[in-house]
Amino acid sequence: MAASASRRPSSSAARLSIGQVLELLRDEFPDLAHSKLHYLEAEGLISPERTGSGYRKYSRDDVDRLLFVLRAQRDRFWPLKVIKEHLLEHGVDAAASSTVTSIASRPGPSAQIQAVRLDRRGLALQAKVDEDFITELEQYGLLADGLLFYGAVELEIANAARQLAEVGLHPRHLVMLRTSAEREAHMINSIARPLSRPRDAAARGGAEDLARDLGESMIGLHSALLRSKLRER
């Protein structure tokens, strides 16, 4: 069972603030933000109670429902419309929420990345490379220079770069991949950023969702095109 699932509120009477919900789910969803929760609320996916002062309070049922929504997006790639229809027809309980991941029909390339926090030596050890290799990745722009700590994405990059280096494709050969990623990110941001309004949390959440979905689509398209070209050999 995922870490966040085992840390749900201890009783149905418990009520959590939005900050407490983010902390509760941090292990499984480290990038979850206030704006995402506001967006899901605006879209009718979750409906926490409000106090007399207007503060949102989340029950255990709210957290279970939120977990179902987040996992269905991440692991099944369901759009919000499909998730909403499923919830209207079937609802959700704790068991369903905790098993979405295990029955995912098409786990995405970033679906199972776990949160990590590593120093430079730790990154080298986890990726099974030496620190000179980390320096080389920074030199060619595959890792940001000057980071004090590295997360799951940096570890994923270092692991992939090591595997490629083992067959002769060293970091200096991978600059075109970095450049391609930069162009794709710029393209996605040019579409998503105009939809985000600084004072509108729901709009920011929608823009973040759109950027993530476009990124997954780009990854899927790139993978399909690469497989297509490899078949042409």
UniProtKB/TrEMBL annotation:
Domain HTH merR-type: 37-90
SMART domains: HTH_MERR (SM00422)
InterPro entries in UniProt: DNA-bd_dom_put_sf, MerR-type_HTH_dom, MerR_fam
One Pfam family hit: MerR_1
UniProt key word RNA-binding: no
Spans through the membrane: none
Name of the protein: Transcriptional regulator
Organism: Brachybacterium muris UCD-AY4
